[in-house]
Design brief:
single chain; 310 residues; mainly alpha; Farnesyl Diphosphate Synthase; 74% helix; 0% strand; globular
Length: 310
């Protein structure tokens, strides 16, 4: 594997679409609230999101190495990116990458704050700082949320509610307004299900590395049950957004499409978790879970962008 391929692989870009769609939904909703859309601030804030995501992936790769090296059945979506395990990148290179990502985040966020109205600078600064802290703290000490049973919750927040909130604030939305939280909650539930499912193939290596995922705490069957409840909650959340006309019309009706997807995904997850063979990877199921989460970013994004464009 070339260095360029290794850096591309460690970035785990498959998780970015949901994040960017939720950011776009929050930013478009914020523009409706303030009657103005600032393209430059939107680009800078989305750049902050990408850098936060990159810092999280690099940090996780370094601190999850003890578990990754134990994983004999790693797939594209479980067991890490494998660039450290295979030697494609060194720990020093990855840690330098974290430093560069954080430094760039400081520069981009500083530029964003300089271009933002005075009234939203403090909320924006707090939100960006919180995002970086949660991203690094997912696996890095002292927080180590993934080792304390909060990994799935943190990841779901960072992929669902957080980007919608950042987009909303970037366009000048009020910090206390519940709209970005309501719009982001179905995506939170969907990503919570996806991360719970993704941890099932890694139960044994995670145990050896000291991680505390729900799949490890409750077992594979328990994780399937938790993921199924989260899938149902995501569908219900989307339908409530439609019922309350937060996302209305044909766009809100599109949430009905999530119901059969959730049913199929729950069946796929239960079937894969019961499978007892030499290759317990669940790449197909995890892809399906990520596509399910994509609904809850795409629908509000399309709706609010439609309203902004008139």
């Amino acid at each position: 594997m070339s260095k360029a391929s290794a850096w591309f692989r460690i970035a785990r870009l498959e998780y970015l679409p949901v994040v960017l769609l939720m950011f776009g939904a929050g930013a478009a909703a914020g523009a409706l609230y303030t009657h103005a859309f600032d393209t430059t601030r939107a680009l800078l804030a989305s750049g902050c999101l990408v850098l936060i995501q990159l810092a999280a992936m690099l940090t996780g790769e370094h601190f999850d190495y003890p578990g990754d090296i134990l994983n004999r059945h790693a797939g594209r979506f479980s067991g890490g990116s494998r660039v450290l395990v295979t030697g494609a990148l060194s720990h020093d290179e990855v840690l330098r990458g974290v430093v560069v990502a954080v430094a760039l985040l400081g520069a981009v966020s500083g530029w964003l704050l300089a271009l933002s109205p005075h009234a939203i600078r403090v909320p924006l600064m707090v939100t960006v700082t919180l995002g970086l802290e949660l991203a690094l703290g997912h696996t890095a000490p002292p927080l180590r949320l993934s080792h304390r049973g909060f990994g799935e919750i943190n990841a779901a927040f960072m992929h669902g509610i957080y980007p919608a909130l950042l987009g909303w604030l970037t366009m000048g939305g009020r910090p206390a307004d519940p709209l970005p939280w309501l719009v982001g909650m179905p995506a939170f539930c969907a990503m919570f299900a996806a991360r719970t499912v993704a941890a099932i193939p890694d139960i044994h290596p995670d145990s050896g590395a000291g991680r505390r995922t729900y799949a490890l705490i409750f077992g594979a069957r328990g994780a399937v049950g938790i993921a199924t409840v989260a899938l149902i909650a995501a569908c219900v959340g989307g339908l409530l957004l439609w019922r309350d006309r937060i996302v209305s019309g044909h766009y809100g009706m599109a949430y009905l499409l999530t119901i059969p997807h959730a049913a199929v995904l729950a069946w796929q997850t239960a079937r894969a978790a019961r499978r007892d063979d030499a290759d317990p990877r669940m790449d197909g199921v995890i892809v399906s879970a990520l596509l399910f989460a994509l609904w809850f970013g795409l629908i509000p994004f399309a709706y609010f962008v439609h309203l902004v464009r008139g």
